[in-house]
Design goal:
Helix content: 25-40%
CATH class: Alpha Beta
Number of strands: 5
Structural class: alpha/beta
Largest sheet: 5 strands, mixed
Oligomer: single chain
Order of helices and strands: HEEEEHEHHH
Radius of gyration: 14 Å
CATH topology: Protein-Tyrosine Phosphatase, Chain A
Number of helices: 5
Shape: globular
Strand order of the largest sheet: 1-2-5-3-4
């Protein structure tokens, strides 16, 4: 597989470019993939209950809507793995709507990538979705993620 086939097209909807050049796709699971859209090689799904079966390697983090991850240590480990894998694979982060939990996780990945924690939410809102990271406690979680 060529390197270009292992990475997202950064112009595609939901794809965020981190300062290191890693590309991560954020997505809302309530919107199905478009026919012919590339699939991830690895996905992390942030939901209150297990996600539907995926055709690619997937990891579920229990993360209820509008809340924070149930196990913060497990979330940190999973997000660190996603960040590492995004250097060479198509990684997707998704929740139901693709904004609150997904935006929070993307902001945490930005922190891992070197964005100062106090700037990470704005970084994700500029590069991914202006409504990302929906609650005050999600913003606080990102600020404390470092």
């Amino acid at each position: 597989m060529a390197d270009s086939e292992k990475r997202w097209d950064e112009r595609a909807p939901g794809v965020l470019r981190l300062p290191s050049g890693r590309l991560i796709r954020g997505r809302g699971l309530r919107r199905p993939l478009e026919p012919g859209a590339p699939t991830p090689s690895y996905g992390i799904y942030l939901l209150g209950k297990p996600p539907p079966e995926a055709r690619w390697e997937a990891h579920w983090l229990r993360w209820p809507d509008f809340r924070l991850p149930s196990d913060r240590a497990a979330a940190r480990t999973a997000l660190a793995e996603a960040w590492e894998r995004a250097a060479v694979e198509r990684v997707e982060i998704a929740c139901g709507g693709g904004r609150g939990r997904t935006g929070t996780a993307l902001a945490c990945l930005a922190v891992l990538d070197g964005v100062p924690a106090e700037e990470a939410v704005d970084f994700v809102r500029r590069g991914y979705d202006r409504h990302a990271v929906e609650t005050p406690w999600q913003r606080r979680y990102v600020r404390r993620f470092s």
